[in-house]
Amino acid sequence: MTPEDQLHSWKEIAAYLDRDVRTVQRWEKEEGLPAHRHLHDKLGSIYAFKSELDVWKLGRRVPPGGEEDGKEPEVAEARPASRWAAFFKSGLVPAFITGAAVVWIAVWVVGSRYGFPRQPKKAPSFTRINTLLGDPGEARFTPGGETVVFAITSVDGKRRELYLARPGIVGSRPAGIPANAEILSVSRNGELALARHEPGRSDILAVVSLAGGAPKDLVEGISDADYGPDGTSLAAAVLRSGKFHLEFPLGKVLLSQDTRIWAVAVSPEGDRLAVLREEDPKDPIEGFLKCRLDVVDRKGRVHPVSREIQVKPGKVLWMPGGKEILVSRWQAGLHETELVALDMAGRSRILARIPGLLVRLWDITADGRVLANLWNWSTELEWQPAGEPRSRRFRGLGMGGFTGLSSDGRKALYCELESSPDGTRKIVTYLLDATHPEPIQIWEGTGAGFSDDGRWVIGQKTKGGETQNFKVPLGAGAPVPIPLPASVGAFWPGFHPDGKRFLLRAWDPAKGMSISVWDPERKEQRRIWGPEQEDPTYRLSPSGKYMALGELSSGEIQVFPLGGGPRRTFKPFKEFRPIPVGWIDGDRAVLISEGRWDFPLRIHRLDLPTGRVSLWKSLDPGGRNARMNLPTAVMATRDGDAYAFGLIQDLVSDLYIIQCF
User: Once rounded to an integer, what is the mean pLDDT over residues 279-305?
Assistant: First the structure.
C-alpha cells in the first residue's frame, strides 16, 4: 500500500468517512472498522488505509431506521396494552403463528440456497509442524498422510528446496530431489508434480518420484496441477499462446480464458474439477485476489459455485466425500480468515474462524486433516547499541516496534502484538540488553519508555475495560502502580527527567489530545500542549528542559521549554510530516525522520540556532525481497550514539495441521 493510501490519525479517518471522531471510534469497537495502531512510544497511535476502509464500507450494513450519521434511531411510541389484549381475543393468534413459521422457513431456505453462512459447530484444533526452518512454503501430505513434503527458499534466496517432516517430530530433512521448484501435487503412487523454475523460461511442469531421481519435464507455462484419483492422470492450468487453458488429462482443453487460473483440484471420483479463477486482476486489497470458484466436468461444462472470494493464492480442496469444496476466505473488515465449505449450490458452511492470521490451504486427508500455512506479519528489528561496532538484528513474533531506548543507549524496549491460531491475542514487551544475546520478556502488556537512570520502564495493562499503569522494575522488585489524575479520557504516562514527575499524553474524545506534566506527590497537573485533534510524537532534550513535537498535520516541528515560555516552529520538508526521533549536540539540534512509509529511512539534523537541515543518517536494512517493507517507530538516544528502528517485512508462515470437522 502506498503512503497516499494511508490516513494518520482519528481526525483524518473521520474526515475521509465524513463523520466525527467519536463516531468512527465507536465503529472500530462495535463494527470492526479496520484501524491499526503503531506499537511504539506513543502506545498505539492510530492509522488506517483508505482501500481497507472502502472495502469495509461496502460490507457494512445499517439496519433500517438505524444509526448512520451519528444520530440515534427514533424510538416508536409505546402501544397501549389494551391493543395487545384485543389482538389475543381476536382469534388471529393461530394465523399469526402459522405466518411467522412460514416466514422463518422461507428465510431458512433462502439463506441456505444463497449462502447465508452457517456457523462453526466446534472450535478447530491446530498442530504445528516444527520444521526448525524459517518460513516454510507450499506443502503436501505424502501417501498415507503421516509425512509432509514442503518447499522453502534457500538461505541465499535463489532456489526453492524440498524437505520432509513428520508431525510430532521436531526438525526436518532434505527430500533429496535436485529441483528448484514449487510443489503442486503428490499422487497416490508417491509421485510429485512440480513447477520447476529455470531462468528465462516460464515455470515448467515436471514429475519426479519421492524416492528420488531426476525430474521429467512435461510442459512449459504451468500455473497449477493436481493428480487424479488413479495416481497417473494430471489436471493442469497451463499458459499457452497468451491464454490460460484448463486441461484434463494433460493436453485435453476443457476451457480457456485471459485471466489466470490459480488453483485446480480433482474430485475424489475424478469426474469434476474445482477451479479457482481470477475474476478481476485489479485487486481491491494489495496481495489478495478477487476470484470465482467453479466446478468443471470432463466435458468442459462450467457450474458456478461462488462469484467472489477474497483469497491469497493457494489451493482449493475437495472435502472427503466430494460434496463440498473447502476454501479459505479473508474477511478484511474483521481481520480474520474463514475456512468455508461450499456445496455445489453455493451454500456455505463456516468450519473455523481464525482471527488475525492468513491461511493458505495445501492438502487434505480422507479423515479430514487439513494441511495449511498460517501467515502472520513479520517484524524485523535493527538496533545499534552505544559503544558497539555493529548493529544487531532480531525477528519478532508478531507486529510491533521499538518503544524505548535507555539514555545510555545500551538497552531498548520492543513491544509486539502476538496472535495465536486459537484466536487469542496478547501484547508482550521485551527488553534488549547490549550484554545479553537474546530478547528478554519483561511484561505482558504494553511497555514504553525508560526512566533516566535506566532502572524502570512504564507498563500498561487493560483488564475488564480498565487500564492500569505501572512502574516496572528491570531488576528485583514488584511493579508499582502509577496514580493518575481523575479526569476525562485515557492517559499514556512517560517518565519526566527528574524521575519524580510524569509526562502525560491524554486523549479526551470531545477535545482531542493534550500533553501535561503530572506530579503525583503534589497531585498537580500542568498542561504544556493541546488539547488539539492531533496525535503527535515528542522527544525530550538531554537536559530535560525542552520538548520537540512533530508528526503534526501542519508539517511543523515545534520546540518549546517544559518550564513555560515561547515555542519555536520549523517546517523542514514540503512533502512529509517530520517526526522527532532524538536530539544531538546537547539541546542544540533535533534528529527528525521524514515520516515516509518506505526505505531508505532518512534521518536529518535540524539545527535549532540556524534552522538548517542536513542529512544525519540513512537507514536501510538491505537485502530485502519482501512485498511490503514498512518502517515502524525509529528512535535515537539524546546524544545520537544509539538508534533503533523496526521493519514490517511482509508475511511469514508456519505449517499447521488443522482439524475443524
Answer: 76
Q: Which residue has the cell 505449517?
A: 655
- How confident is the model at residue 512, as a pLDDT? 84
CB 149 within 8 A of CB 174: no
User: Rg of the chain's alpha carbons, rounded to an integer?
Assistant: 29
Asked if the peptide bond before residue 178 counts as cis, ω within 30 degrees of 0, the response is no
- Angle ∠(256,285,44) on CA atoms, nearest 5: 160
Top-confidence residue, 538 or 419: 538
Single pTM value for the model: 0.54
Cis peptide leading into residue 531 (ω within 30°): yes
Residue pair 463/477 in contact by the 8 Å Cβ criterion: no
Cα dihedral 312, 313, 318, 319 sign: negative
Quick one: DSSP state of residue 550?
A: E
Q: Where are the alpha helices (DSSP H) in 79-202?
A: 81-89, 93-114
Q: State yes or no: pLDDT of 501 exceeds 50.
A: yes
> Once rounded to an integer, what is the mean pLDDT over residues 28-47?
62
In DSSP terms, which residues pair with 257 in a beta bridge?
244
* 3-class SS shares of the chain: helix, strand, coil, % to 5: 10, 50, 45
The answer to whether the beta carbons of residues 288 and 233 sit under 8 Å apart is no
Q: Taking each helix axis as running N to C, give the angle between helix 50-59 and helix 10-17, from 0 to 180 degrees, rounded to the nearest 10.
A: 50
Phi, psi angles (nearest 5°) of residue 15 = -65, -40
Rounded Cα gap, residues 374 and 395, in angstroms: 17
Ordered alpha helix ranges (H), 8-117:
10-17, 21-31, 50-59, 81-89, 93-114
Angle between the N-to-C axes of helices 10-17 and 21-31, in degrees from 0 to 180, rounded to the nearest 10: 90
Residue 53 main-chain phi, psi, to 5 deg: -65, -35
For 446, the enclosing helix (H) or strand (E) is strand 446-450
Q: How many CA atoms lie within 13 A of 37 on its CB side?
A: 15
List, in order of start, the domains of the chain with CATH numbers. 3-57 (1.10.10), 125-367 (2.120.10.30), 377-652 (2.120.10.30)
SS3 call for 12 = helix
- pLDDT at position 326 is 93
With bands split at pLDDT 50, 70 and 90, how would you rate the model's confidence at 356? low
Q: Rounded to the nearest 5°, which phi and psi values hold at 617?
A: -160, 145
Place of cell 497451463: 238
Q: Rounded distance, CA 402 to CA 448, Å?
A: 8
Q: Look at residues 359, 422, 527, 509 and name the one whose alpha carbon lies nearest to residue 24.
A: 509
pLDDT in tens, 419-450: 666 656 678 899 989 888 778 889 988 888 89
Query: What pLDDT digit, counting tens, does each position of 144-163 carry?
Result: 899 999 998 876 677 888 99
Close Cβ partners of 516 (under 8 Å, ≥ 6 residues apart): 503, 504, 506, 525, 526, 527, 528
Mean pLDDT, residues 514-526: 89
DSSP state of 296: E
Q: Please give the torsion angle defined by the CA atoms of residues 508, 510, 512 and 518, in that order, rounded to the nearest 10 degrees.
A: -30
Nearest-angstrom CA–CA distance, 457 and 199: 52
Please tell me the distance from the alpha carbon of residue 121 to that of residue 658, in angstroms, as a whole number.
Answer: 15
Residue count of the chain: 661
Which cell numbers in the block locate residue 154? 534457500
Closest CA to 193 of 210, 172, 213: 210
> Other CB atoms closer than 10 Å to residue 130's CB: what's the count?
15
